[in-house]
Amino acid sequence: MGHGQSTTAILTCGDWDCKHVHTQCGICGIPVPPAFRQWVNIKRSYNEAYGGEFRGMKSMLARLKLLDREGNPLHGFHHLGMHDVENICRCVLHLLNDYGEIQLNGWMR
């Protein structure tokens, strides 16, 4: 990255959260914080890296064989914030192990 560019990024499982920040900033009449202008959508990263159709965290965990017989995460509960963060991190670490880096791939269109 060039001088003055950030080496950090927000990472999400989908674009909805970051797009919602843009909408809310517009409603409130405030500028969008720079951190929310670009982000990493881990679902898109998985689709680009592994092909297929990763539609959410469960499909990424399934690829890692981290779901039980009923299709629930082996670690924690789906849609419980702290467990979702841990499971998304598992997916990110797997992707980094395979490819070494993750690119920004989310932005307002």
Automatic annotation (TrEMBL):
Instruction: Please name the GO terms that the record assigns under molecular function.
Output: nucleic acid binding
Judging by the UniProt lineage, the source's domain of life is Eukaryota
Sorted alphabetically, which InterPro entries does this protein's record hold?
3-5_Exoribonuclease, RNaseH-like_sf, RNaseH_sf
UniProt-recorded name of the protein:
Uncharacterized protein
| Source species of the chain | Alexandrium andersonii
